[in-house]
Amino acid sequence: MAAPRPTPGRRGRGRPAGDSDTRPAILAAARNCFAERGYDRATIRDIAATAGVDPALLHHHFGTKHELFLAAMRLPIDPTDIVRGLLAGDPDRLGERIVDTFLTVWDSPAGAALAGMVRSAVSHEPSSRMLSEFMATSVLAPVVKQLGVRDAKMRVSYVASQLFGLALVRYILRLEPLASAKRDRVVTDVAPSIQRYLTEPFTR
Amino acid sequence: MAAPRPTPGRRGRGRPAGDSDTRPAILAAARNCFAERGYDRATIRDIAATAGVDPALLHHHFGTKHELFLAAMRLPIDPTDIVRGLLAGDPDRLGERIVDTFLTVWDSPAGAALAGMVRSAVSHEPSSRMLSEFMATSVLAPVVKQLGVRDAKMRVSYVASQLFGLALVRYILRLEPLASAKRDRVVTDVAPSIQRYLTEPFTR
């Protein structure tokens, strides 16, 4: 992932030269505000005030709060884009697509950045809250809406638990034999659990 | 769990008074050696040498390497004891017993200590390796042996992934609605995944 900080040679979009100084200040202010207030309560207006800039400049540089969060956290991918793609295909193979995509991203160079993000979210209380609010509001809520099943929020929590656990055991704790297992095998074995969480009736 | 450090009122086993000073040194040496060499390669002899005591004293105070690890990491429970109890009952309800026991322990006062251990294992590379080696050698290997199914090691990795993920989402990231869901409900919903990982044939 490219660093969000612009370098003189790579800007060239005709913005005034002073702009390049405000981006790092805005990103630092965003990290502070998100950590302090959580994702849901931190506003673009708060962050602009903390950075000492006009909210319009912040919108100009980063777009929405969602996009600002991705930049401030240096997230290598936008989970919303991925989720949108996954939901587009055959609902009976959704579990398979989810596990395959999840492992493909973690096996790619982006995996190291994701591992860093999970490490920090787990070890640091405000980061945990920030990440879980972002996940709930910005990633999971659209899935729940589109799934149209009963208990959708709970189902998505279970999916998150299995996927986070897979990342933890395979990529962070590196517990064998899961750490070295072929991706296709893990997809085949884990997909039915994800599919069950998403679409099969719960016995209760 | 009782703290491993003896207090004057509770010792009374007629040991020389000097002993109480060596326990903290042994535990500190154990933490260093486990972190530096991993669980498998750190030996009682190494740890005794680091603490500057005789290995016999170390055995006297702590028993086996497994027990020394539990004391050094301040683990509130011995996972081996729990696992032994779980494996004793009806194999068709093993998934249910595992999830129920796992959540009961995390919901108890021991949960805070476990959360601390997971936070440190995730954020600190040597702690990750140490914990995963301990899990593999001392907790999972006996399960694998007793299960007597094909792919037992892989199956146990999947169980670990679902359980760790549940702990992460419910107790550490506290993602709703899973964070506030009733334990019985979570047991009913997650048990079939655990049961499938342990005993059902994988389609491949």
Write the layout of secondary structure elements.
The structure is a homodimer of 204-residue chains.
Chain A: H1 19-41, H2 44-51, H3 55-62, H4 65-72, H5 79-87, H6 94-107, H7 110-123, H8 125-147, H9 152-172, H10 183-199
Helix pairs in contact in A: 1-2, 1-4, 1-8, 2-3, 5-6, 5-8, 6-10, 7-8, 7-9, 8-9, 9-10
Any overview of this molecule?
Two copies of one chain form a homodimer. The first copy, chain A, is mainly α and 204 residues long. Helices cover 71% and strands 0% of the residues of chain A. Chain A has ten helices and no strands. Chain A has helices at 19-41, 44-51, 55-62, 65-72, 79-87, 94-107, 110-123, 125-147, 152-172, 183-199. Chain A is globular and about 50 Å long. Chain A starts with 18 loop residues before the first helix and ends in a 5-residue tail after the last helix. Mean pLDDT of chain A is 83; it is low at 1-18. Chain A binds chain B through residues 118-123, 128-129, 131-132, 135-136, 153-154, 157-158, 160-166, 168-170, 172-178, 181, 185, 188-190, 192-193, 196-197, 202-204, and chain B through 118-123, 128-129, 131-132, 135-136, 153-154, 157-158, 160-166, 168-170, 172-178, 181, 185, 188-190, 192-193, 196-197, 202-204.
